[in-house]
Amino acid sequence: MADPAQEPGGVLHVRSTLARRIRNGEYPAGAKLPTETELAEEFGCGTDIVAGALRLLQWDGLVKKVLRKGYFSSGPDYRPG
User: Fold this and answer.
1) Is 21 exposed, middle or buried (0-12, 13-18, 19+ CB in 10 A)?
2) Which pTM does this prediction carry?
């Protein structure tokens, strides 16, 4: 049975799609990502799924969360530390 997290609209699917967009320059370093609500509508999932994907991207060092402002791309060449 397939992992639901990897299905379209699953956490890993959202994460990989956003990571690809960051790496391809669609969201260059410093660019604000769409809101969780906007992304949930785009991917046809709940905001909890999007929030999980954004946390993973933050862990990967591809996005930064700015309190009360949202998520911003760290760019494809960002290396934490």
Assistant:
1) middle
2) 0.84
